[in-house]
Amino acid sequence: xxxxxxxxxxxxxxxxxxxxxxxxxxxxxxxxxxxxxxxxxxxxxxxxxxxxxxxxxxxxxxxxxxxxxxxxxxxxxxxxxxxxxxxxxxxxxxxxxxxxxxxxxxxxxxxxxxxxxxxxxxxxxxxxxxxxxxxxxxxxxxxxxxxxxxxxxxxxxxxxxxxxxxxxxxxxxxxxxxxxxxxxxxxxxxxxxxxxxxxxxxxxxxxxxxxxxxxxxxxxxxxxxxxxxxxxxxxxxxxxxxxxxxxxxxxxxxxxxxxxxxxxxxxxxxxxxxxxxxxxxxxxxxxxxxxxxxxxxxxxxxxxxxxxxxxxxxxxxxxxxxxxxxxxxxxxxxxxxxxxxxxxxxxxxxxxxxxxxxxxxxxxxxxxxxxxxxxxxxxxxxxxxxxxxxxxxxxxxxxxxxxxxxxxxxxxxxxxxxxxxxxxxxxxxxxxxxxxxxxxxxxxxxxxxxxxxxxxxxxxx
Length: 461
Prior knowledge:
The structure is a single chain. By secondary structure, the chain is of the alpha/beta class. Among the domains are: 4-91 and 115-172, NAD(P)-binding Rossmann-like Domain (Rossmann fold); 174-299, no CATH class. The protein has helices at residues 18-28, 43-58, 73-77, 92-104, 116-140, 153-163, 177-191, 225-235, 250-255, 260-269, 277-282, 303-321, 336-343, 391-413, 419-424, 434-447, 454-460, and strands at 4-11, 32-39, 66-69, 82-85, 145-148, 168-171, 201-208, 211-219, 222-223, 349-356, 369-377, 380-383. It starts with a strand and ends with a helix. The mean pLDDT is 96. Its cofactor is NAD(+); Mn(2+). The record marks 113 as: Increases basicity of active site Tyr.
């Protein structure tokens, strides 16, 4: 059987993380014949990744993917079947300001890319970028399937729909995979062997990006919710991780957790939390988890580490592009290749994605970007009915979702004078006196001024 051709445009093709995961997944796959066009404002980074892609092609299990770095977004998009959007909105220096300025005002953030003051200001500089990408897709690849990997996921997925309502777009996030790994671990412990992977675990997902929950868990026809309930009860106070966290390893220290926040939210709201602790904590008031992160056994990730880690990844990527090291056609945990295959008619696939609410999630307004399961098939991306969260949890989720929608609309309409009032309503900002919150907002806006419209800077001055 011949491989199915597919042309993929990768916007942000100089990526040091997601691009190489896609390369490994394409090398592992045996059903696609992919042509991947890499576009990045840093063209040299895209050229490096094209060289890396050809090294993955050399170890492919099926038809080798072909990679090319292209100099313009138009060239990348023209005739594309699939578009992947994976950009960094600004630079790590901007992200450092998103985290460090609020910290001086007593606001701790574990990540700072989704909600809280960091997520809010990151959205301000990213929304215009994503609108321009959506407009380019409308002009050059209006029928392409589009996957957004960029945070803040909810706001930016909404921004692309705002700019191009007919866009065939979903937002992709792997946080729910963490709970599915836990359930597979439980089942393997019971079986006494490594029989199951996270891909065998089915969950019904409800929420918004990085604040996701599940109310049903299945594995080979078995209801796994009772087993997970017992697991969470057993480890709620002691915590759990799939292996010991090495405190001398910075990646372990800043990215692994012991699910204490996840288990506590389950206890409080009666529904298992799916995302990782660092993200979940930022949706809750400051004093609940973030101020006492060490007690809950997770760590705030400093941007200084991200900068060091990026330098190390770049050195490894440069070496791989130069012919050093060995690329492996190992399948990652990411779902993108399976989703593409579903859309091309190569089997159906269900996964959690971010889409406008078309009724799949009860209790949130239509059009709100929600995260639930969807079916990928030759018919497209079809959201699956998820149901409704418990009322107390829905109230928290609805508050964040409404702020995200209002933020997007204010930026799209140029209503800059509405932004501070929205900024003040985030649970992490609410405790600050109005004058202090205004001072922090102005300082954050000025710190990222080179990415923002002049009208907004006028409002903040």
